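Lab meeting minutes (informal)
Scribe: AK
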Amino acid sequence: MKRQDRNTIRDLMGQGPAASFPYGVWTTATGRQVIYDRRYRPVWQRDSATGPARPADPGEWVAGIVERRWFYDGCVAFADRPALFTPELEAWGIPA
């Protein structure tokens, strides 16, 4: 399954390595928000805090980051991570 084909939380969780799990959110100077994975690759994006989510280009270098937020740190057990990022994805309207 290609990254672009991961349309639901369940798809993300079924992909195995923790590196593919959502890790945090960047906010840029323009208000754009980008969810990124443990490898700091963009996964989802939206133009504003209330805009609709759409897949991001995993190869993009996101410029103008003014805020960084993480869903969890490396001390959180693999099995516990989905409980920390799933509410954020649901708030973005990414289906379970």
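Next up, CB showed the second protein from the same session:
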Amino acid sequence: MATDPTMTQSEQRWWAEVFVSLKPVVNDPQGLAVRDGLHMLGYDEVEAVRVGKYIQLWVSGVDRGQAESRVAEMCQRLLANPVIEQFEFRVSPAPAESRPEDGEG
């Protein structure tokens, strides 16, 4: 893993993949529209579609447990609406060159 000069020696970079989807009891009009569009294109085998969000985060932290705790908090507070959405995520060591160019430095 490449070393980031802005991090202390005890910190590591983590890559989190977050998957947010509507709870099963919530109607998904976007999913219905996608399903209907697929049917119009000839994909009649598609029975149902649920549309969600895929979010990638690059975070620094001392260990995986700290990174997972912070990502869970981010999901609960901002990334997912707990009334109508559910989420799951996985955290893994960030590959050396995995951070996208987002213009934020």
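CB comment: The longest helix spans residues 64-79.
No objections, moving on.
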